Amino acid sequence: MLREVTTVRYLEPLRSGGSVPGVVEADDLGTYVLKFTGSAQGRKALVAEIIVGELGRRLGLRVPELVLAHFDPAVAAHEPHAEVQGLLRASAGLNLGMDFLPGARDFSPESDLSDLDVTPLEAGKVVWLDALTANVDRTVHSSNLMVWPTFGVHEPRLWLIDHGAALVFHHRWDAATVLATAEKAYDFRQHALGRYGPDTAAADRELAPRVTEDLLHEIAAEVPDAWLTDEPGFASPGELREAYVTFLAARARASAAWLPTGFASRAQLAAEDALRARATEAGRPAWLKRVPNLHGKPDPRPAKRYP
């Protein structure tokens, strides 16, 4: 089972994401990034964090340790921002902590990380996990990958974080939608690891047989009952856990239908971005097309003059 800790000190909010997690210290002397039940994404984001994160760990991928963290808003009474305080007060009780990786940095597909060794098989395993769990939030624009340990100290490696946007099917549990989604293929052309030549076929051969119902039952059991209550159509948390197991097991068996095999090159991605930008520009009203360029490049459009 996931370890349980108690938050003893609130250090700071992280504003890089919409959920505004916080960095905290706990009674086990650990430092964690705490994701709150009171965030706009709600409990289902935390359910996805546990199921996808723990599945990734069981399949041999690097995911920071997850813990269940008891949180008393009183430890954050010094937080000056009213909106953050509202989030903290709404999150009293059990929340989800992710081990804080000191010195880690965001992975950027555009960076020249020549000392980062990502093999086609490792990239393929990450893409495979994302495809299995319908995680469309690991792109060239938002990788949700960290590089750790610190450069120059130890050999850096990729770590997977932020899986709250995965398991999109659990936002609509009707039978027809779930059945259709079990074999659904998602567009991973802009996956953050696409330029590493992901060998998803090899990843599938290795990982798909390991995603058994027994393994999924163990992982689903990690989710607290309180985060699985009041789901329309389900009489109990146990019944809802079984639905997660049934769906993911069926999706693993159907991997031939959704296995990503094509990834865009950097030049193709740039061309697609330029095409979208031109389409956006063409759809703007005339007055908006004259807005000055604020990105440091000369703007060839005539400046709008005011009387």
Automatic annotation (TrEMBL):
<feature type="domain" description="HipA-like kinase">
    <location>
        <begin position="12"/>
        <end position="245"/>
    </location>
</feature>
<dbReference type="Pfam" id="PF20613">
    <property type="entry name" value="HipA_2"/>
</dbReference>
<feature type="compositionally biased region" description="Basic and acidic residues">
    <location>
        <begin position="296"/>
        <end position="307"/>
    </location>
</feature>
<dbReference type="InterPro" id="IPR046748">
    <property type="entry name" value="HipA_2"/>
</dbReference>
<protein>
    <recommendedName>
        <fullName>HipA-like kinase domain-containing protein</fullName>
    </recommendedName>
</protein>
<feature type="region of interest" description="Disordered">
    <location>
        <begin position="287"/>
        <end position="307"/>
    </location>
</feature>
